[in-house]
């Protein structure tokens, strides 16, 4: 029997690595029922194959970029907030697949590609799973930096720290556990020493979060670089940690000293950049070689527009300082992504402290956080464009490893030359000790 059917077919075409699907309507007459079913089934299979091929292609592309030393960028879209829903905002940002995000703009949809894309349904565990490899690198002697970026209220603190009562811990507390889990697994092969500093950059001033009150005000913390270009915080207290629990207790103490305030955009807005440095020194018990890794975890304060956040007086001053440092970070990223000969690291303390993570000797991961709502479309587009630029920056990560002989020579130099001098003179010992540690 012959009938007339109208059906939607799928046309697939490829242009220079960019695959698109478009649908076409066609009227087909005189096609038997069984044949139409067969065509539909074939179409379904083609789309399925195309989608999985596209995902694989992106995955392998990201792996190659990673091997080249490119900064990895994850994008996390948070769920719609109650305030956004109450404002009647529509969803304008969505995850297309594991590697792509689409944004509905007034000029039509715009697609961005990242190393991973997480939607509002993704759990803290999902986001952390892909960061575990970097924690291992820090223990192996690499410098690793994980930082969150995004407009105020986009979910940076949720991603890095977690929720207030730690029912959904973020990357920082999970990293503390992961560090000590890995150390525990290797306890028979290596001797480890873990030390940590916790700082905040507030109103362009670095503050040691291990101290509070008047002492915090009087303490001067400065950013220095050792001979290998590695950043360290001179004047900040460095504490040793022997378990994840101990590290977490230090972190809670530091968070209690951090500046937070309610703004129109976020009831608990971070008014400062939080910078945690976890140093892992490991001595190989078989060959005596020593490696030094540093894991930097950074929760940046959010970029914001004063009119939207309702900032006044002190909060306006804070917002200006936050925006100034983020703009300096933007300038560094632009210079690096355009391969300019001069990179303006010195324009802000934030860029100085992140100098070894951006274009330096580090394995770096940035998580760009965005809101799904069309109320925040401009800020979301700015963040995604910014993150796309970060993806083009190449770092040259090298393992900080020295042989048993070099490690012993350093000890000798420390014991016989530097320490006696330090005890005789009333001088700040941090730079000298750092010199000893950075190379003979
Ligand atoms: N993925 C998520 N799932 C559930 N809730 C989230 C998620 N991301 C963010 N939130 C919630 O959204 C609110 C704002 O998030 P958060 O404080 O992390 O933003 P922020 O980017 O750190 O803001 P600021 O820059 O102002 O400090 C919080 O109440 C947080 O719990």
UniProtKB/TrEMBL annotation:
SUPFAM superfamilies attached to this UniProt entry: P-loop containing nucleoside triphosphate hydrolases
GO CC annotation: microtubule
Location in the cell: Cytoplasm, Cytoskeleton
Kinesin motor domain ranges (all copies): 70-393
Keyword ATP-binding among UniProt keywords: yes
Binding site for ATP: 150-157
UniProt keyword terms in alphabetical order: ATP-binding, Cytoplasm, Cytoskeleton, Microtubule, Motor protein, Nucleotide-binding
PROSITE patterns: KINESIN_MOTOR_1, KINESIN_MOTOR_2
Gene Ontology process terms (BP): microtubule-based movement
Molecular function terms, GO-annotated: ATP binding; microtubule binding; microtubule motor activity
InterPro entries cross-referenced by the UniProt entry: Kinesin-like_fam, Kinesin_motor_CS, Kinesin_motor_dom, Kinesin_motor_dom_sf, P-loop_NTPase
SMART domains attached to this UniProt entry: KISc
Pfam families the UniProt entry points to: Kinesin
Family to which this protein belongs: Belongs to the TRAFAC class myosin-kinesin ATPase superfamily. Kinesin family.
Protein name: Kinesin-like protein
